[in-house]
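ZP: hey, is the S-adenosylmethionine complex queued? I don't see it on the tracker
AM: it wasn't, my bad. submitting now with these inputs:
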Amino acid sequence: MIDQGQLFDIGNFKNKTYRAIRHDVTRERQSNYCNTVHHPDQKINQIKNVLNNYNNLKILELFAGKGNLTSVYANYGSVVANELKDKVYKDLLKKIKNIKQVECNKVDSFLYFHKLISQKKHFNIIDLDPYGFPNRFFPDIFLLIKDGFIFITMPKPYVNILNGITQTHLSSYYGNPNPSMETIIDRIAHWGLCHWRRIELVDYIDCKSIWRFAFSVKKVKATDYTGVNNRKKEANK
Ligand SMILES: C[S@@+](CC[C@H](N)C(=O)[O-])C[C@H]1O[C@@H](n2cnc3c(N)ncnc32)[C@H](O)[C@@H]1O
C-alpha cells in the first residue's frame, strides 16, 4: 500500500506524492494524445451498442479530438465536430477528409454551444468528451436536444486530486465536494428536467479514471410529466 503523503523522486518528477505524479503523467498523456487516456475502443463499442440501428441522426460532437469517434458517428448521420487545439484539429481534418457528412469547427465548445442555442439548433446525439469535468454545459446543453441520446465523459471525482478549487466546483454543481456516481447521475437527470427533458441512463462504462455515460433524452410536456392540469382548462370544466 502506497503512503499517500510520501514524497517520491521518479524520472522528471521530483519531490512529489504518488497521486501528484500520477496526475502529471495523465496530463502528459493527454497532451500527447495517448489512447490510454481516451479509451477509444470502449467508447466506440458503447456508441455502436446504443445507436445500433439508428440512421439519419444529427450529431454534435463537442470535443472531437483527432476524430476517433467522428468517423464512427458519421455512419449514423451528419456530424458537427468541434476541436479547439490547432494541431489536433489538423489531424481531425485529415481523418475525415473523405467523409462528406462531417462539418468541422475549430472553436471553444464551452462558448460555442451558447451560439448554437441562440440559433435554436437541435441535434439527436450530443457527445461531451472533454478532458476535465463537463459540468459547465449543464443544464442548458439540453436545449440542443429534444429526442435522442447524450454521451458524457465524467472524470471519477474520487480518483482525482481534489484541491480546493475542484472541491468548490463540485460542491457548487453537485452539493458535494466528492460526489458519487449515483449523485452525479441523479443531478444530470434533474438538470434535464430544468428544460423539461426526461433523462434516463441507458448505459455506462467504467474506463479507469472516467465514466462514460449514455443517457436517453426526451422532451416532455410539463403538464403530462407532472400530472398537473392546466388551470384555465380546469376552471372551464
Ligand atoms: C478527451 S479528448 C477527445 C477525444 C476524442 N473524443 C476521442 O475519443 O478521440 C478532448 C479533446 O478536446 C479538445 N479540447 C480541449 N478544450 C476544448 C474546448 N474548449 N473546445 C473544444 N475542444 C477542446 C482537446 O484538444 C482534446 O482533443
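AM: back. The mean pLDDT is 91.
ZP: great, adding it to the tracker
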